[in-house]
Amino acid sequence: MFASCQKEVDPGTDPVNDVKYISRLVQTEPGYPGEASVMEFEYDAQNRVTKINDMYYDTVGGVAQVADEYHYIFHYNGTGTTPTKITESVQGISWFMKFDSQGKKLQDSVVDPSGGGTEVVNYTYATNKIMTETIFDLSGATLMLRDTVEFNNSNFVKQKFATYFNGNLESIWEQTLTYDDKQNPLSKLNISSTFFASAYIEMGTFLGLNKNNFTSLTERDVFDPLNVETTQYRYTYDADNYPTKIEYLSGGTIRYEYK
What is the mean pLDDT of residues 34-40? Predict the structure, then answer.
């Protein structure tokens, strides 16, 4: 699932020492009993994220088994808090990142050696906005996404997705979000402002840039104004205003566990 008047993206900032660090996110849905999606976070002594285990469990014969899994390993130079590369140990995917001299991300490039293609994401910045251009090389065909993310009060409140295939505009989707006033634990991680969106491996998002937790998400097809869907979320918090559970009002939960 899993950005003031001008969002300052500073991937070199050290993690705050008095925060709670996520150990696991566990997602379940009522229509799929015995199944769960689990994301586990591993850290080093500096509280840098060193590995994320993304696993899907299914119950077979009364025993929970891993049905699908990805393991993302974060690489660093020395004691720096900005990852220089991410590798995935099951599929062999490598994810490289480039930054400018101020530490703003300029580019992601994802390479799948198994023949799944390559993805390059370029980032540009404006007041209250991040613009991305994502190019997929799919065995001779080119898929391009152009996204714009708008921020307000340290949260991204609108995102527009434009999809082009071989140069032709195929679709435009727009998302708008509302927020609570509580802690977003993803924003406390050292990878929060470097681990941006990657539609290719469907893992990173801009959620780490948000100060708070989103309570509603409305998706709209720009080409079809009647095609609108809103999902609402209800949170349970602990005494420190960190979420312990998200309930989708349409069904399903995500449980937060901290180390």
Answer: 88
Pairing of strands 49-60, 63-75: antiparallel
Is 90 among the domain residues? yes
- Mean pLDDT value of segment 154-159: 90
Q: Which string of DSSP letters, residue by residue, matches 106-141?
A: EEEEEEETTTTEEEEEEEEEETTEEEEEEEEEETTE
Residues β-bridged to residue 236: 245
Are residues 257 and 242 in contact, defined by beta-carbon separation less than 8 angstroms?
no
- In-domain check, residue 101: yes
Cβ proximity of 210 and 179 under 8 Å: yes
For the record, the structure tokens of 115 come out as 């023949």
Give the pLDDT confidence of 110-137 residue by residue, as tens digits. 887 776 678 888 999 999 998 988 888 7
Alpha-carbon distance values, 133 to 9, 163, 177 (Å) = 18, 10, 22
Contact 207, 217 (CB under 8 A): no
**Paired residues of 111 in beta bridges:** 94, 118
Alpha-carbon span 254 to 243, nearest angstrom: 10
The answer to the question of residue 8 being in a domain is no
Q: Which residues pair with 199 in a beta bridge?
A: none
- Tell me whether residue 2 is in a domain: no
Encoded tokens for 105: 């991300």
Here the CATH number for the domain that contains residue 171 is: 2.40.160.190
Q: Count structural domains, the chain.
A: 1
Q: What residue numbers bound the domain in which 173 lies?
A: 22-258
